[in-house]
Amino acid sequence: MRRAVEIPRVAGPGAGPLAAGRALAFALALTLGAGAQAQGVEFGAVDAATVRVFAVQNVTTEEGRTARGTRVVAIPNMGHGTGLSVTGGDHLVLTAAHVVENALYVVVRLPGDGAYYPARVAYRDDERDVAVLHIVGDVPPLELQ
Questions:
Q1: Where are the domains of the chain?
Q2: For the stretch 47-82, what's the b/e string if a residue is b when 16 or more beta carbons lie within 10 angstroms of its beta carbon?
Q3: Tens digit of pLDDT for each residue in 35-72?
Q4: Distances from the Cα of 101 to the Cαs of 39, 106, 107, 126, 129, in angstroms?
Q5: Using CA atoms, how far apart are residues 39 and 135, in angstroms rounded to an integer?
Q6: Is the pLDDT of residue 116 over 60?
Q7: 48-135 belongs to which CATH class?
Q8: Confidence at 10, pLDDT banded by 50, 70, 90
């Protein structure tokens, strides 16, 4: 079921040491286990489990003429990328910091769902290019495959 949701503004660069610790632990778990599993990866399954991340920095408008008159068109300046769902029920997504850099609004699209959900940046480390997003609101549980 799709529904309209209010998109919250991104709140600051971080949410404290707890979020940072979770992000670091998750990144280490991915790094340590990646070598043994990388040989048998099927890209279709990986793509089906990928969270899509969209970050809007600003929106400009342009006026154009059509056969029916003048129209104003909104042109978003945005970044996009991918992320990984962090297990544990906290609705966290690990992504790259450059994807959400200067973002006013962040939205994620979950695999298999097709719906868009608002998110906020819970933690960002520009030096290591890592960010943790918190999906806002009711989110269906993600199945890990």
A1: 48-135
A2: eebbbbbbbbeeeeeeeeeeeeeeeeeeeeebbebb
A3: 544 555 565 666 666 888 989 888 888 888 888 889 88
A4: 33, 10, 13, 9, 10
A5: 31
A6: yes
A7: mainly beta
A8: very low
